[in-house]
Known about the structure:
5-stranded mixed beta sheet, 8-stranded antiparallel beta sheet, alpha+beta
Amino acid sequence: MALVVHRRAEKEEPADVHARAREPCRTGGKGAWCPDAPRDARVKMVQKYQSPVRVYKYPFEMVMAAYEKRFPTCPQIPVFVSSEVLSEVTSDNGALHIIERSCKLNVDVPRLLKKIAGVEYVYFIQKNTLNWKDRTLLIEAHNETFASRVTVIERCSYSVHPENEEWTCFEQSASLDIKSFFGFENTVEKIAMKQYTANIKRGKEVIEYYLNELIAEGITEIPRWVPPEQRAATQPFAVPCVPPARPAPASWPALDSVSHSSTKDASCGSSSTADPTTPDGDKLDADYIERYLGQLTPMQESCLIRLRQWLQETHKGKSEAGEWEAEKIPKDEHILRFLRARDFNVDKAREMLCQSLTWRKQYQVDYILETWRPPAFLQEYYAGGWHFHDGDGRPLYILRLGQMDTKGLVKALGEEALLRHVLSINEEGQKRCEENTKIFGRPITSWTCLVDLEGLNMRHLWRPGVKALLRIIEVVEANYPETLGRLLIVRAPRVFPVLWTLVSPFINDNTRQKFLVYSGSNYQGAGGLVDYIDKEIIPDFLGGSCMCNVPEGGLVPKSLYQTEEELENSDHIKLWTETIYQSAHVFKGAPHEIVIEILEGSSVITWDFDILKGDLVFNIFHSKRSPQTSKKDPTASTPGVNNVQLIEKSWVLGVDYSMVESPLVCREGESIQGSHITRWPGMYILQWKVNGPAPVSAPALPRVDDVLASLQGSSHKCKVMYYTEVLASEDFRGSMTSLESCHSGFSQLSGGTTSSSQSQSSSLVSR
């Protein structure tokens, strides 16, 4: 309930604290009181909110004057009934002003719930710390009513924009923890979140309302605070004109004789046409979100910011020269796609995104546009290509599936190369979305696909071809969610329902809702393609006037067919079977170990590994003995599971082998890079072992290796994907400090788009 605290930062508190210190227990009859329930018996629900940075294009002093006008009550926010000052302290020089208020809220809840709770109003305590010298305001609030059952904490801050001292930034975060509430925990949570989000953006509107009121009263600038010793040497020339009904607080800054000429310009909105910028590279500006990502609800903004912060905290890196530097995280629009795909459930979106980013890294998908060169015959017989844009500015991709010889393409090219070609199309689509966002001046995050099925017949239902199609759909759905804005299917023949029956189970509900199917010539005229594509862009083969350069397809000559052996020996990297990375499972009591033989000292062992599941401890040992490979029971009966132990039970640490670096604790989801300069020749053993119980989490769609591993039945199973290499020290361009591990960015999806989407994570000291 408490989350009704608005970003005004006003926090409620009971007028009579002692009267509300105890709460009636309705299960014990009228007048009965119930003690706190045992912690393990409570229903625990926690909701968090983090706002983007909101920018007022007015100086800090003007914004503070507008903020003070909202007290003791604010008609623009009906739920805020009144406030009462509990304490007020001002420093001797006037630079610091601390005020504590009790705020009274009339929460809009069903009357029955109020009767059950036994209260009419909800009270919060709000503490404001205003620093005129640093030009900051920190607002901290917590609920007093039902404090033993519900905990609401809110923190807001106003500060000067780091790139424009005449602008003011605002940030807000809050958490709601419902321990118990008379059996109405779910109801209270929904009411609290609904009212809180409804009042978040209203807070900015209220500030702007009072700013306009100040300007209408002739107050266009307020001098900044200056130290007392400097005030005596100046002659004040202006006094802030504060409305008589709301006199200026005693803590308002002393007048400065120096006129801030730029203040008036900023307060009048002269910079209102500037491009949206963010005050900090690690933070998102609300205007930037609206301009480049689209309209989001406050809670959707919060989900994006929280997931982005998690990526910043767990994935940081260093340059090839070994210098620490900020590493970019995936682009904001890419993160947002995964949140949309999981209905803004942060945990589910994070799991899906991490699996996708690991897949991109493992199979080098980031470089596909640079490395993939489709064979000449594919460009001739693959009847698909980009064709301008639709009526909403989305890139338009045309696929003449009915004219395509899917059997011939699979036999001549193979499933792997066909998948690689489809992935390159998706990568190109993302680039085109970014370009169209700049061209049209509004967020373009998806594309439209126009599929022409004329010519579709039973040959397209060739089983290996359908199997390849389903595998491609599975990969695209998992790694390119919410990239398809609309799918227009035209000239669908009678055989189409058969194909749709086979394919539709592999397409999620959100994507299926974007399908529009036209049979025969229904796509022509009103209600057809012209509703989604400008008439001038409709291709000629569909009755339009625009020449379309998409290949017409046709039968692939059998002379181009390859044997299974030729396809298997093709030189392209297998997306499903080959990778420079290896994967291993780690169990409690069964670490995974690899041995690296070093023939001369001062060589450099480098590594790059990702913790896919569980928490692990990474160790490096040196031994003069050559270990023997062994497998233990936990994985012996499970095919396809890689788990090797090299250190024998009879070995004694410090005698048979020694630890050359301190253990490094690695958390699930982290990506670790590092190096070690060897001092002696011999055998170096890299070890990953379980660090406590691994968390259990089930992905939305189980992968094959996860299913196999789950058959093992171990509750302490972890998984790591790793790559190692040995370099001569003179050839190593990385850090020369031993074990300088770091958290690296997942993939090149973090390439720069705009300044607001680039992460500037602070450096970490390696362990």
